[in-house]
């Protein structure tokens, strides 16, 4: 009887946990989409707010961190951009779009640093 209850309880926990993650991912995707819309209108601070919210809702959603990195980069917050790119790449190391965005960021950052070092 106890084993049966334990199995039922484990199944109930598993089933109840699955929709929560799915809901978090779906909600995070909505925040990311809205962030893209406002960024296209030039409202970058608003977009960053939306993408930050998406990363809070689902800290495993790599596209949210990728977009957040782009937003930080656009606003000149290079350290935060680097951290967001690092997180995105950790979550999705084979994602070609994230890798391309990071490589462009790194190239621009390296050029800017080199130009600032010249006497």
CATH architecture: Alpha Horseshoe
Beta-strand percentage range: under 5%
* Helix content range: over 70%
Mean pLDDT: 87
Per the CATH scheme, the topology name is: Serine Threonine Protein Phosphatase 5, Tetratricopeptide repeat
Secondary-structure class? mainly alpha
Structure described in brief:
The chain is mainly α. It has helices at residues 2-40, 44-57, 62-74, 78-91, 96-117. The chain has one domain (2-117): Alpha Horseshoe (Serine Threonine Protein Phosphatase 5, Tetratricopeptide repeat), CATH 1.25.40.
SSE diagram, text form:
Elements: H1 2-40, H2 44-57, H3 62-74, H4 78-91, H5 96-117
Features:
86% helix, globular, single chain, 119 residues, mainly alpha
Tell me what you see in this structure.
This protein is 86% helix and 0% strand. Helix 1 (2-40) runs parallel beside helix 3 and helix 2 runs antiparallel to helix 3. It has a single domain (2-117), classed as Alpha Horseshoe (Serine Threonine Protein Phosphatase 5, Tetratricopeptide repeat), CATH 1.25.40.10. By secondary structure, it is mainly α. The longest helix is centred in the first third of the chain and has 39 residues, at 2-40.
